[in-house]
Design goal:
binds magnesium ion, binds 4-methyl-5-hydroxyethylthiazole phosphate, thiamine biosynthesis, 206 residues, transferase, globular, magnesium, EC 2.5.1.3
Length: 206
Amino acid sequence: MKDFRLYAITGEQFHPGRSMIEVMEEAIKGGVDIIQLRDKSGDKAVITEKAKALRELTRKYGVTFIVNDYIDIAMEVDADGIHLGQGDVPLLEARKMVGNKIIGISTHAIAEALLAEQQGADYIGVGPIYPTATKVDVVDPVTIAYVREVVKEVSIPFVAIGGIKLHNVDDVIQAGATRICAVSEIVGSDDVKGVCEAFIRKLERG
Ligand code: TZP
Ligand code: MG
């Protein structure tokens, strides 16, 4: 897959009154190079429309587009890939459905990371690093100790996620993360572009 540094996930609850496309376009202008549509409403017709709009936006800017949970919607809108949790469709089954599209897998422990790598995931999520209110069924924070373990033992790309803010991202980067994902810190900001630029500067300083 095309490499990435700053990963944004949609979170419409954080920007009432602003459209998702407007917020995501600002994030792209600030340096986000991969976007995931994450919508837990269960309304597939609505999610499909959002996916189409995000596909159009990301294609315009050459940004990678990932759909969370819904393989069928990802295929329908020709997303670049899908993101799956530990309780979703198993990776080997998903691979048969998506061919060579990107598959990202959320992991919370080194055994899950190694299994995802072995089964052909394109990248893994590593988190939640810190407590987060964005995800309801989230497991306990894995802390940056897990980042250090993944750096040592895993070869595929990984992205750190969960409670990552401008004020704590330096510790995550120092632990060895070169790709960062944030939801509320990016889309909940009054200055989405500025926050993304600040994340990128920190990643570049590494
Ligand atoms: N997966 C693990 S933590 C998380 C997801 C989707 C939510 C991260 O949101 P925030 O607002 O960046 O803490
Ligand atoms: Mg899922």
